[in-house]
Amino acid sequence: MRRFADLSPSPRTILTPGPVEVDPRVLRAMSHSILGQFDPEFTSLMNETMQMLRETFVTANVWAYPVDGTSRSGIEAVLVSLISPGDRVLVPIYGRFGHLLHEIADRCGAEVATIEKEWGYVFDPEEVIAAIDDFRPAFVVMVHGETSTGRAQPLADIGRACRERGVLLIVDAVATIGGVPVETDGWMLDAVVGGTQKCLSIPAGMAPITYNAAAERKALARKRIEKGLLGAAAEPGDVLRPIRSNYLDLSQLQDYWSPLRLNHHTEMTSMLYALREGLRLVLEEGLEARFVRHRLHERALMAGLEAMGMRLYGDPSCKLTVVTCVLIPDGVDGESVRSMLLEAFGIEIASSFGPLRGRIWRIGTMGYSCNRKNVLHLLGAFEATLVRHGVTLPAGEAVQAALTVYESGEQP
Amino acid sequence: MRRFADLSPSPRTILTPGPVEVDPRVLRAMSHSILGQFDPEFTSLMNETMQMLRETFVTANVWAYPVDGTSRSGIEAVLVSLISPGDRVLVPIYGRFGHLLHEIADRCGAEVATIEKEWGYVFDPEEVIAAIDDFRPAFVVMVHGETSTGRAQPLADIGRACRERGVLLIVDAVATIGGVPVETDGWMLDAVVGGTQKCLSIPAGMAPITYNAAAERKALARKRIEKGLLGAAAEPGDVLRPIRSNYLDLSQLQDYWSPLRLNHHTEMTSMLYALREGLRLVLEEGLEARFVRHRLHERALMAGLEAMGMRLYGDPSCKLTVVTCVLIPDGVDGESVRSMLLEAFGIEIASSFGPLRGRIWRIGTMGYSCNRKNVLHLLGAFEATLVRHGVTLPAGEAVQAALTVYESGEQP
């Protein structure tokens, strides 16, 4: 008698802001047999993955590789490796994940200043630049696409201002990489952290990062050789403010990803297979075509929701393409709607955090989940579920409005 | 034209001390489609995994769950969450991974004292107890199975001594869990960290841990609610020595794994599928039967190596069942032997670290890789490769000696 049943997950239409559905090619890649971490076949796969990450981040940086953990492990790796205790760090916050950056920078021992924007809006770049000139930080750390509010922060002007002032700009692009443009070099971003389980449509488990030579110098100045890796006679180097983490130490990780292959962790073989296949899919589709696809399905979804009489949350001028936030109508129990969507229709959408809890639903249209079948299925199911919850709405209009968008095609 | 080829890893016989071959059932589990992280079907899989981990760690602890990262992420999570800066920590070292524990404890800001044993030996428990009484630490941190030297440290007497003195004992059982007995409760271990890619034969990517109420109290005393998770009015709690990491903060991770399901990272869906299936395989085989299997193949391997005239490294009285270290004969280039084994025979064995570099080969017989076919294939290939490297040895004896062991079966 088996106490634990065979794994047999139900099929789901996942329209949250991550994790989202995974391309079967990526799922199959994970079922290949294991290679040893220093097998030349495997290190060759690692090198190919680095090259594909450079292209995805649109950068000529030497360093582009995954940190072995979920997205926030990448954020913490960058912050703990670059920011020394006492360093001045400015964190502009316009949603939950800005608060997370504050939290992590704070735990790194930074002297953090924050500026906050009302949720649903983003900063005018001049506001951030004024705060930089006022606080004179060594680092600015901010979110590119805020999934908690569905907003996207323009970064090019902030990047240029940081570069002119010798301030390093670290960006959380977890929600945007592979779905909307992220121009690492063009926008002068010094370090960027991506996520796998959102627009790249790879299972959660790795955090692709990239950083330039200026960022690397910060980490190398704090580098310490790991005890036990050198011969018995060698002593670890003493540095003033050594990196506080071993697992998330970029100065060690880059030695592991370099031709030195200095032993650190054991690379996640199957996840690396998945990341490589997912990036191959991104580059085969082409970044620009992928961005066009995400905009098309966003337009169809919004047209359907509006035809249904739903009101969208947040400033439309800075809407994040891949997350659409819907105000929960008065008197409707948002969690009951989510449960019915999941149980009756097999569709998952997201609730929300902090001040928005119970006020909005969040619908993600990311990566492999971002397709016509899913959008049309959701609109029909959402309408039926709202009717079951006592909402009066024009029956059948939502799907028709979306079909009209699809017939018109993406505007150039 | 595809610039990056279809994934097609060569078949390998992996006899290193990790990563090792993965059961096809585990590989297939990873190819299932994704569930959302708060989907009731998924949280039910998380709960089942916790129960299977308790059984594998032989503990009644409430907390037994994976940290989302490779093995050392689990070690760092335990150390950074329990050890406050300034805490006194004793690290007994008898190989490379003891030095790693020192390194990580040091980066946590601990006041670390070490005692060292010549590589190839382990401590008499009385030596460790005397050091505890001398240094009076709050924590003892040590390795159970040292893959760098192939030695296993008996822990029961040290565990009892720690408990009597109110000292917490944290154990790195990365190499032993699922391959040789690890008695969390029986040996009075306060926190234990396992690894996936060794005797559990799951791809690298998660670090199963368990800890008891005394360990939990250490983490909870330093707990701080994450900024941005509560409503705007709430303030994060101020504690004297907050946990320095967010990603590896056990006080947050356990809220995520509890019925609260407080959002932290996005659980690694596919790796969780793999861990669950791998643990199912362990419990279906049965822990005791699994340990017997590992001892049987160790005996066959050692009999073969000795019949070939090879000399084994280290004190035989404390040999780690699942790692066999072989002295490289004088005048033989160890790396050339390893390359030929990989290229001609598709077999991977390991080199070594620090003072043992170039002196020994390390052969792992772990988990799914630990089987008769692999041991016999290795012995034949190793003999042929050594002959090609100019070693004189009694041809054909090694495989015969191993077959004799297999015919006699495992002694009870």
UniProtKB/TrEMBL annotation, chains A, B:
<dbReference type="Pfam" id="PF00266">
    <property type="entry name" value="Aminotran_5"/>
</dbReference>
<dbReference type="InterPro" id="IPR015422">
    <property type="entry name" value="PyrdxlP-dep_Trfase_small"/>
</dbReference>
<dbReference type="GO" id="GO:0004760">
    <property type="term" value="F:L-serine-pyruvate transaminase activity"/>
</dbReference>
<dbReference type="InterPro" id="IPR024169">
    <property type="entry name" value="SP_NH2Trfase/AEP_transaminase"/>
</dbReference>
<keyword id="KW-0808">Transferase</keyword>
<dbReference type="GO" id="GO:0019265">
    <property type="term" value="P:glycine biosynthetic process, by transamination of glyoxylate"/>
</dbReference>
<keyword id="KW-0032">Aminotransferase</keyword>
<dbReference type="InterPro" id="IPR020578">
    <property type="entry name" value="Aminotrans_V_PyrdxlP_BS"/>
</dbReference>
<feature type="domain" description="Aminotransferase class V">
    <location>
        <begin position="29"/>
        <end position="351"/>
    </location>
</feature>
<dbReference type="InterPro" id="IPR015424">
    <property type="entry name" value="PyrdxlP-dep_Trfase"/>
</dbReference>
<keyword id="KW-0663">Pyridoxal phosphate</keyword>
<comment type="similarity">
    <text>Belongs to the class-V pyridoxal-phosphate-dependent aminotransferase family.</text>
</comment>
<protein>
    <submittedName>
        <fullName>Alanine--glyoxylate aminotransferase family protein</fullName>
    </submittedName>
</protein>
<feature type="modified residue" description="N6-(pyridoxal phosphate)lysine">
    <location>
        <position position="198"/>
    </location>
</feature>
<feature type="binding site">
    <location>
        <position position="362"/>
    </location>
    <ligand>
        <name>substrate</name>
    </ligand>
</feature>
<dbReference type="InterPro" id="IPR000192">
    <property type="entry name" value="Aminotrans_V_dom"/>
</dbReference>
<dbReference type="InterPro" id="IPR015421">
    <property type="entry name" value="PyrdxlP-dep_Trfase_major"/>
</dbReference>
<dbReference type="GO" id="GO:0008453">
    <property type="term" value="F:alanine-glyoxylate transaminase activity"/>
</dbReference>
